[in-house]
Give the backbone structure.
Amino acid sequence: SWQRAVLAAAIGALPQASLADCPDPEALIAATERALVAGRLSTVPAFVEQTERSFACADAVVSRPLLGRWYRAQAAWFSLSDAPDEAALAWRSAELAAPGAWTEALGPRLRVERDAAVADTNRLGSGTISLVPPARGHRTTLDGLETPYPVSAPPGLHLVQVLERADGRAVFARQVFLIDAGELFEIDTGPLSVPTARATDAAPPPP
């Protein structure tokens, strides 16, 4: 759909920003919600891109409650942009990240729609997300949970983060929207920072 194309054009693999320049994801998600309530739908893709940027330079793995809130905002955008199939997938993604949570600002009509989407037991299989090249020496997460890649994932929204092992700081983030079961989504992570060796990782001194 054009809605998914617009969102995909706005988001992508983003370079790491300095911690001083790193946006606040919670503030950006709140701004996204205000834009939705005010009907400023055309501004939402830019907010989504900025939020993804914030996850690429965060000092920790994104929390799943915050991730669920971000996915709910995007599901609402899809719904209000007349993309019901994408909205249903995004609602399910939000529910998987933060079961039972709701954003009151989105109102009762969208909540009814969300409830119907998550109650649908017609599961759509899974696709595969892989990192090219593999992020060796780093922590890799999917939707806030540490996991090795390639990884199977259900259709819907997913956030990939790559983090330093030493200090847990993010060096890469990318949102993926899997649409079809069996889909293979390869993510080019580009050059990642060289992991910082810890004292415990150093070779022992010679005898």
In short: The CA atoms of residues 17 and 57 lie 6 Å apart. The longest strand covers residues 156-164.
